[in-house]
Amino acid sequence: MTDFPEKSALEPDDWAAFRQRAHETLDRALDRLEQAGTGSVWSPVPKDVESQLEQALVAAPLEADACDAALASLLPYGVGNTHPRFLGWVHGSGTPFGLLPAMIEASLNANCGGRDHVGLKVERALTAWVAEQFGFPQTASGLVVTGTSMATVVALKVARDAALGFASRETGVDGSKLVAYTSAEAHACNARALDILGLGTSALRKIAVNGAFRMDLSALKSAIDRDRAAGLVPFAVIGTAGTVNTGAIDDLGGLAVIAEQEKLWFHVDGAFAASGILSDEVAPKLRGIERAHSIAFDFHKWLHVNYDAGFVLVRDEDLHRRTFSTRPEYLKAAERGLAAGNPWPVEFGPELSRGFRALKVWAHIAEFGPQRLGAAISENCQLVRTLAALVDDAPSLERLAPVETSICCFRYRADGLTESELDALNEEIVVRLQETGVAAPSTTKVNGKLAIRVNITNHRTREADLHVLLGAIDDLAPEALAQFRHT
Amino acid sequence: MTDFPEKSALEPDDWAAFRQRAHETLDRALDRLEQAGTGSVWSPVPKDVESQLEQALVAAPLEADACDAALASLLPYGVGNTHPRFLGWVHGSGTPFGLLPAMIEASLNANCGGRDHVGLKVERALTAWVAEQFGFPQTASGLVVTGTSMATVVALKVARDAALGFASRETGVDGSKLVAYTSAEAHACNARALDILGLGTSALRKIAVNGAFRMDLSALKSAIDRDRAAGLVPFAVIGTAGTVNTGAIDDLGGLAVIAEQEKLWFHVDGAFAASGILSDEVAPKLRGIERAHSIAFDFHKWLHVNYDAGFVLVRDEDLHRRTFSTRPEYLKAAERGLAAGNPWPVEFGPELSRGFRALKVWAHIAEFGPQRLGAAISENCQLVRTLAALVDDAPSLERLAPVETSICCFRYRADGLTESELDALNEEIVVRLQETGVAAPSTTKVNGKLAIRVNITNHRTREADLHVLLGAIDDLAPEALAQFRHT
Question: Does this entry carry the keyword Lyase (chains A, B) (predicted)?
Answer without folding.
Answer: yes
